[in-house]
Amino acid sequence: MTTDTAAAGIPRGPELPGQIVLVIGGSAGIGLATARRARAEGADVILTGRNPDRLERAAAEVGARSTAAFDATDAAARDRFFAGLPAQIDHVMVTGPGPYYAPLAELDRDRAHQDFDDHLWLAVAVAQHAVGRVRPGGTLVFMGGTGGRSRGPGLSLIAAGTAALPALIANLAVEVAPIRVNLIAAGFVDTPLSATLLGGDLDARRDQLRATLPIRRVIGPDDIAALAVHLMSNTALTGATYDIDGGQQLVSSG
Known about the structure:
By secondary structure, the protein is an alpha/beta fold. It has one domain (about 15-245): 3-Layer(aba) Sandwich (Rossmann fold). It contains nine helices and seven strands; from the N terminus they run αβαβαβαβαβαβαααβ. The chain has helices at about 5-10, 30-40, 50-60, 75-85, 110-130, 155-175, 190-200, 200-210, 220-235, and strands spanning about 20-25, 45-50, 65-70, 90-95, 135-145, 180-185, 240-245. A seven-stranded parallel β-sheet has the order 3-2-1-4-5-6-7, sandwiched between helices. Strand 2, helix 3 (about 50-60) and strand 3 form a beta-alpha-beta unit. Helix 2 (about 30-40) crosses helix 9 (about 220-235) and helix 5 packs parallel to helix 6 (about 155-175). The model is unreliable at about 1-5 (pLDDT under 50).
């Protein structure tokens, strides 16, 4: 029996035993899947979300330590929430709101500013709150995407944000060290948000991806959750962007 074979037969312990994971945007989709995964790996979870009813259901499902219903992009509400957290937590996962797409001729300046605040400034604000609250060696995990790496009508704003976020995360990792900071850049993920954005085109998009992606299946929230928990548990990882798209960038389907 080889060493690898013997090791494969040894039961694996939980990756996050006794740790506290805060999931901002944890009532559905990627955030809820990450909360489930963290709980399965031995962590206590704190969930936040904007919809109190949905948040209550999510908390009951995963056995959350506590919840807070508020809009994470609201600076005053965010400040109050962080002030009331336990003295020390281990990891923070931020899913954030969806992207804003609009052709240049229809681009709304106020909404564009809000979109940058909702993604770039939210990351900065969470990092500021993390200092002294997240333990040394703990993690901040942010969600981004790969769609803005394409070029075309309606992508100008999201392309700028997509380019800026990895640079911001890398620098935050230096500024708040030894807290670790990483970015997950996802392609299409089959979530309620995707269903809202695509509407009646959702099934066609799923079929297209199954036919064209090298992995021959669609990425789901559990795939993102597995990566998020790995970033929390692997203490060698910081300041990087991790693509997870099933090879979507390698094929012409977009």
